[in-house]
Amino acid sequence: MPLDWGDSGGETIKLALARRKATDPGARIGSLVVNPGGPGGSGVQTVVQNRMRFSPEITSRFDIVGFDPRGVGGSHPIRCSRELASQAPDPFLKNQAEFERLLSHNQRYKKDCRARTGPLFDHVDTVSVARDLDAMREALGDDKLSFYGISYGTLMGQIYAELFPRNVRALALDSNMDHSLGTRAFLDTQAWTTQDSFDEFVKWCGKTTSCALHGKNIRTFWANLLARAERGELHYPGEPDVPLTKLLLIYEATGGSFGPTWADLADFLVAADSGSGKARSMLKPLPKQEEIKDATQVFCLDYLLPIRNYREYAAHLKSSRKIAPDMLAGPEALATTAACLGQQAPIPNPQHRLKVSGPKLLVANALHDPATGYNWAVSTAKQLGAAGRLFTYEGWGHRIYDHGECAVNGIDRYLVALKLPAKGARCPAVPPSASKKSAYEPPPGPVPGLPGWVRS
């Protein structure tokens, strides 16, 4: 691919792809290109490890093709100093001096990442990824693109539909980004959806006897944990040398709602409180090494979220705390916003309301999604107007595809037969299991805004 799509005759980069061929070649429709989100998720590993768990209806009719977007995984990844990454200030800033230290760190860190990565560092925006997608479509021999994206992958699909509406066959967007939001709206909506998922965890634990926190005042227990984390008194269960900070604790609570894996989350919180034993966690630190892969720059080139000083920053934190009294903020939103502070305008893919005409996009979302809130899907569907169809799963988690037959059949029918669900279609919630197995887990990989940590 051209490193810079504005200079198609210049330097090129290679993209990594993986293909799992259709099991029934005689019924094959074409390729289904997939992306697991992030930014930073590897579509290659998603296909190699068969993590999407598509139905036989999909795997028999499509070649499943995963790709690592530019700057990610096997596609010329962004590389940065692990030592510098470990010096990133905690985003729960307390004064102007800490705000200025954050800006200074961001400048040093980006300079280092750019030097290690090369000129691609400034060309990993999702507009460039959408152009890569169209080149991939042509290389795969498909007249039109069939695409299934989760989370940040939905932004790729949305932008592709804007740029190449005539090349769209089907775009199934599961757990949607909203690319129209400014700083306050982005942080507030993330705080809301994070608090909503925590509220749902509390309800579940209150009526489920197998929950390790059943019978306790969970909000008081949680508040005490947050206070201890802020005082530096907690460590990861079974990892006495790995501090469990307030931000990491909120990340873990949010991650427990992805599946949801609420039984695992309750066990983790009990183990963190006691300081003994082990429990399954959503995050783990990368092994000690000189360089890390960090895809946060992708977000910084897609979302310009300026904050001029600590006074404005504190006002955003206050607003988030009011909306999310237990969770305080959407952790990934806060971390990525902090990591991108100092980003200069203009960026190659600034926020805007979608303008799509022609193709029909499926906009699917859970009512209680901890990462891409239902309000984002509603907003995206409204922006698309006649070009979008909202498909609601009335339950929990991040990604609706494997949450019951209704959700699977609705998406399958669209991808195979191009039949959209009826207007206002909703799928009933599938009660979360008390077992330790989740319906969906985010793909292993770097955590945006949290360099040096990966989802386990």
UniProtKB/TrEMBL annotation:
Chain positions covered by the region annotation Disordered: 431-456
Segments forming domain AB hydrolase-1: 32-228
Domain (Peptidase S33 tripeptidyl aminopeptidase-like C-terminal) ranges: 329-427
Keywords, alphabetical: Hydrolase, Signal
InterPro entries linked to this entry: AB_hydrolase_1, AB_hydrolase_fold, Pept_S33_TAP-like_C, Serine_prot/Carboxylest_S33
Gene Ontology MF: a single term: hydrolase activity
Pfam families attached to this UniProt entry: Abhydrolase_1 (PF00561), Abhydrolase_4 (PF08386)
Family membership noted in the UniProt record: Belongs to the peptidase S33 family.
Protein name, per record: Alpha/beta fold hydrolase
